[in-house]
């Protein structure tokens, strides 16, 4: 798991250096919200 965390940090730092814009952060937030919505939808279907 340490390797994954380091890779994520490297990607984020590199992205911030290359692209100093909030778009990447907004995209990641949208992706996380979408995945959470899909997960909740799947769980609701499973429960039903």
Comma- or semicolon-separated keywords:
48 residues; single chain; mainly alpha
What does this structure look like?
By secondary structure, the chain is mainly alpha-helical. It has one domain (2-47). The protein is 88% helix and 0% strand. It is flat.
Tell me the helix content: over 70%
How confident is the prediction overall: mean pLDDT? 66
Head-to-tail CA distance between termini: 35 Å
SSE order, one letter for each helix or strand: HH
What does the radius of gyration come to? 15 Å
Low-confidence stretches: none
- The structural domain count equals 1
List the total number of helices: 2
Beta-strand segment tally: 0
The secondary-structure class comes to: mainly alpha
Task: Specify the biggest β-sheet.
Answer: none
**Strand percentage, roughly?**
under 5%
C-alpha geometry:
flat
Note the topology.
Blueprint: H1 2-18, H2 23-47
In short:
With 48 residues, this protein is an all-alpha fold. Helix content is 88%, strand content 0%. It is flat, with a radius of gyration of 15 Å.
């Amino acid at each position: 798991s340490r390797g994954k965390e380091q890779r994520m940090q490297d990607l984020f730092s590199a992205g911030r250096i290359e692209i100093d814009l909030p778009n990447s952060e907004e995209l990641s937030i949208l992706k996380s919200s979408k995945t959470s919505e899909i997960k909740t939808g799947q769980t609701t279907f499973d429960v039903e």
